[in-house]
Specification:
Elements (H helix, E strand, L loop, with lengths): L3 E4 L5 E6 L5 E8 L13 H9 L2 E2 L2 E2 H10 L3 E6 L4 E8 L3 H13 L5 H20 L1 H14 L12 H5 L3 H11 L5 E7 L3 H12 L18 E6 L5 E9 L7 H12 L5 H9 L5 E8 L4 E9 L4 H17 L3 H18 L3 H15 L5 H9 L3 H13 L4 E6 L6 H10 L1
Parallel strand pairs: 2-8, 9-13
Antiparallel strand pairs: 1-2, 3-7, 3-8, 4-5, 6-7, 10-12, 10-13, 11-12
Helix pairs in contact: 3-8, 9-12, 9-15, 10-11, 11-15, 11-16, 12-14
Length: 420
């Protein structure tokens, strides 16, 4: 059965995706707002709020929340991204009423006490410090900041110690009402669910909320720049970003296939050339990160400092070569891999619920798996060449390298090799 979309009178959208034969359910409450909706003074508040709602909600304490879910064989989680915030419960068949009760309390009725907020600021401060001490986290943040500068997309989702400190129960409560406003709120359930039950539970939990949330104030603009950062590490960590397309762009599947061909698996160009043939990196991969209106094509590699510049030049050469030509056999292999990821992920109820919610936020409704597979199959070598031209047209690149002194020239080596 296909996922079915319903809309409540207040704008909350409900997605029912029954999967006959399963003994589990997944419920996701997804707000189509996240860190991108913050200004510099409220940076990190979406993530802080995600932490805070678990400290108490709907009359339950933090311990009561997790014990209630786990007593029914379930698991609860949440995540904050730039453009969405998601709360999820996976549970056994029959667990939908409790899952809805708990998640609606988290989203709509958190306690937000002053004492809890003070403690959670300390926890998030430790998380910020941990990210700064974790090289393969920090290098991505450094590159992201260079890619988008002082825009919301360029700031850390975690925020800063200073911006987190500015939140109080009143301001974080107002932020909750804006972040989780009904105009961009999706309730999606998949697995062993009953559609009528889902609609009745959602209407009771979310049907009476109202309000409008804050809009995105600016389109994403790739600025570019380099961030060589010395650290006393055994290995150098390198991230290279090129400006790319957003999720709704006609070339979205072309860039996904481009990333797959470049560094998506063991048969990819970078794995074969940089790792297998030349031994320049133990870990190297490419990825496409798409937001609603913009995106990046990224490459991450971990290597010895002495090899970083050569690895950067090899990466540039592979990107330039792929941008000019892809063979039919290579493209067919990448299509098979991408469709494999798509269909394997669709076997998991939580993934299905989250994807349906994301597609509804972007396109207004869930998309059929067959339609997504057809869109992948429709990409031609000419489409890949056009996409390659778009990736290189601005002659902009963002990069970060973290590690010993000998690796510091890698981002500049990449830019020079790609653009001269």
């Amino acid at each position: 059965m296909s996922a079915r979309l319903h809309t409540l009178a207040n704008g909350v959208r409900v997605i029912a995706d029954p999967m006959p034969g399963l003994e589990t359910i997944a419920l996701a409450v997804v707000a189509g707002r996240g860190a991108r909706y913050e200004d510099a003074s409220s940076s990190g508040w979406s993530h802080l709020l995600e932490h805070m709602v678990f400290k108490g909600a709907g009359g339950r304490s933090a311990r009561d929340i997790v014990e209630a879910v786990e007593a029914e064989g379930g698991q609860i989680n949440a995540a904050t991204a730039y453009e969405r915030t998601s709360f999820q419960v996976r549970a056994l068949k029959g667990g939908l009423p409790l899952a809805m009760e708990v998640l609606s309390d988290l989203v709509l009725h958190p306690t937000l006490s002053e004492d809890d907020l003070a403690r959670e600021k300390q926890v998030v401060g430790q998380e910020i410090a941990e990210a700064a001490d974790t090289p393969d986290d920090l290098v991505f943040e450094l590159a992201q900041a260079k890619a988008f500068g002082d825009q919301p997309l360029g700031r850390s989702i975690l925020g800063t110690v200073e911006s987190i400190a500015a939140a109080d129960p009143g301001t974080i409560g107002d932020w909750r009402a804006s972040l989780y406003a009904p105009d961009r709120l999706i309730v999606a359930a998949s697995g062993a669910i009953d559609e009528d039950e889902l609609l009745a539970l959602t209407s009771r939990a979310f049907g009476s909320i109202s309000g409008q949330g804050v809009p995105v104030t600016e389109a994403g603009a790739f600025t570019g720049g380099m961030a060589p950062t010395r650290r006393d590490l055994e290995q150098a960590h390198l991230v290279i970003l090129l400006p790319s397309v957003g999720s709704a762009d006609p070339d979205y599947f072309a860039v996904r296939l481009f990333a797959e061909a470049l560094g998506g698996g063991m048969s990819s160009r970078l794995f074969q050339e940089a790792r297998e043939k030349r031994g320049l990196a133990y870990s190297i991969d490419a990825y496409a990160e798409a937001y609603s209106d913009t995106g990046v094509l990224g490459v991450y590699a971990g290597c010895q400092a002495k090899d970083a510049a050569e690895l950067a030049r090899v990466t540039a050469a592979e990107i330039a070569d792929l941008a000019s030509a892809v063979t039919e056999a290579e493209l067919a292999r990448c299509k098979a891999q991408l469709k494999g990821h798509l269909f394997m992920a669709a076997e998991r109820p939580l993934v299905r619920a989250e994807q349906a919610a994301g597609q509804t936020l972007l396109f207004g409704a869930p998309r059929e798996l067959a339609d997504l597979a057809a869109a992948i199959d429709a990409v031609t070598p000419a489409d890949m060449a056009r996409l390659g031209g778009r990736l290189l047209a601005s002659r902009k690149v963002a990069g970060a390298v973290l590690g010993p002194k000998g690796a510091m020239g890698a981002p500049d080596a990449f830019e020079k090799a790609l653009f001269g």
